[in-house]
Amino acid sequence: MQKIVNRLKRIEGQVRGIQKMVEEDRYCVDILVQISAIQSALKQVGFSITERHINHCVSDAIKQGEGQETIAELMSVLKQFSK
Amino acid sequence: MQKIVNRLKRIEGQVRGIQKMVEEDRYCVDILVQISAIQSALKQVGFSITERHINHCVSDAIKQGEGQETIAELMSVLKQFSK
Amino acid sequence: MQKIVNRLKRIEGQVRGIQKMVEEDRYCVDILVQISAIQSALKQVGFSITERHINHCVSDAIKQGEGQETIAELMSVLKQFSK
Amino acid sequence: MQKIVNRLKRIEGQVRGIQKMVEEDRYCVDILVQISAIQSALKQVGFSITERHINHCVSDAIKQGEGQETIAELMSVLKQFSK
């Protein structure tokens, strides 16, 4: 998980960078390109956590014959995530 | 633009909050819900900046009969943004 | 699966409706609203099939201790889907 | 616009192809890959129509000093589109 924390620290820095760009009244398109870079990075973090979740919680629940609820919960988070 | 800077500060705090959740080994689904909240917030910031950009730079270029290049640039950033 | 086929038939009809709107030179914004309705409908179909896939193939593989490859494949399709 | 109609005809055919895949009970992941291909294609059509809209309606409104309402409408359709 340290890898994920490190990626989140980098994302935090990128968000701070955008604040500075906005305050310095930098060109809108350059700011938008940075925002879309953060969104890609966040999505990657989301996928890593989703994969981890499926490999652990979801897999364990399925092995114990209790997958249904966990899978429904997973689907609901995937739907929210893809909005 | 102060409103946008404030929103970015809130997003920065949310990213830090997720780092903590990951370090404390909180439930993956709760982390994913938080990440998708940040993505929505970032998207809103992106839209505000896009609207501002269209209202200023793009409109000015169009009025001066030089819209073509600016619109092409806008489309390219919208495409990247929607990935 | 009949429910999914029916939804796909409705989507097919919606796509045909958009062709007509384009040919009749209807207002762009109205066409875009229709396209985004189709995208929502397709996304719903995608989620239904994903859920079905997790409930069957992925669950079976996990129960047989062979989840790893199937989960990797699932993640890769989720990533492509969210682009 | 004929180019856009042709692309929509291809998309219509792809949707029909997915119906067949579902009826033949083809592998879920293969179906999902096809659905995500249609979504990409639809997105491209959406971008073409958006660009056309900005180059014509939005530009005309801006030139006549009446951009505000048209830009607000554009933003609202972009938001819906990115859901």
Question: What does it look like?
Answer:
4 copies of one chain form a homotetramer. Chain A has 83 residues and is mainly alpha-helical. The first copy, chain A, has a single domain, classed as Methane Monooxygenase Hydroxylase, Chain G, domain 1 (Up-down Bundle), CATH 1.20.58.1000. Chain A has 3 helices and no strands. In chain A, helix 2 (28-63) runs antiparallel to helix 3 (67-81). The first copy, chain A, is elongated and about 55 Å long. The two termini of chain A are 26 Å apart. Chains in contact: A-B, A-C, B-D, C-D. The A-B interface holds A 1, 4-5, 8-9, 11-12, 15-16, 18-19, 22-23, 25, 27-29, 31-33, 35-36, 38-40, 42-43, 45-46, 49-50, 52-53, 56-57, 73-74, 77, 80-81, 83 and B 1, 4-5, 8-9, 11-12, 15-16, 18-19, 22-23, 25, 27-29, 31-33, 35-36, 38-40, 42-43, 45-46, 49-50, 52-53, 56-57, 73-74, 77, 80-81, 83.
Task: Describe the secondary-structure layout.
Four copies of one chain form a homotetramer.
Chain A: H1 2-23, H2 28-63, H3 67-81
Helix pairs in contact in A: 1-2, 2-3
Question: What's the short story on this structure?
Answer:
Chains A, B, C, D: It comes from Lederbergia graminis. Four copies of one chain form a homotetramer. With 83 residues, chain A is mainly alpha-helical.
Write out key terms for the chains shown:
homotetramer, 83 residues, mainly alpha, 88% helix, Metal-sensing transcriptional repressor (chains A, B, C, D), Metal_Tscrpt_repr (chains A, B, C, D), Metal_Tscrpt_repr_sf (chains A, B, C, D)
